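Structure (tokenized):
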């Protein structure tokens, strides 16, 4: 079962970054990532949010089409 994200932080350490993730139970995990890896994470998050936003906007737009007052 997936855990609920409570907090995360990213700290630069030399050439790499430490990504610390904490769940709602207070358990933390740390990952070392390169700049390129963080860049890939950023791109993946942006793509997912853009797709979700497009879906939400198309649903809102469909509701407006059915509303004769709009």
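Design, position by position:
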């Amino acid at each position: 079962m997936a855990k609920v994200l409570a907090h995360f932080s990213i700290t630069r350490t030399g050439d790499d970054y430490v990504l610390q993730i904490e769940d709602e139970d207070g358990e933390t995990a740390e990952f070392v990532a390169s700049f390129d890896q963080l860049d890939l994470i950023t791109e993946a998050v942006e793509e997912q949010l853009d797709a979700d936003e497009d879906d939400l906007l198309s649903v809102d737009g469909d509701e407006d089409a059915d509303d004769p007052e709009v």
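Reviewer-requested clarification: The chain has a mean pLDDT of 88. The two ends are 43 Å apart (CA to CA).
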